[in-house]
Design brief:
Helices cover about 10% and strands about 35% of the residues. The chain is mainly beta and about 60 residues long. The strands form two sheets. It has a two-stranded antiparallel ribbon with strand order 1-2. Strands 3-4 form a two-stranded antiparallel sheet. The chain starts with 7 loop residues before the first strand and ends in a 10-residue tail after the last strand.
Amino acid sequence: MPLTRKIRVEGNSIVVTIPSQIVEAYGIKHGDLLEITPLEQGTILMKKLPQTGTEGLL
């Protein structure tokens, strides 16, 4: 089932939120890194990166 989100501007950034159903299903939490890959016109892949133990150094 597709979930939609509206893009908003926050400061100098464009922001899109992740639906809570996705956050819970994939265990996404504050400080996690997500890899964003454009695949083709209009398609974006987002992947949670594994923890490396160096997240606090960013």
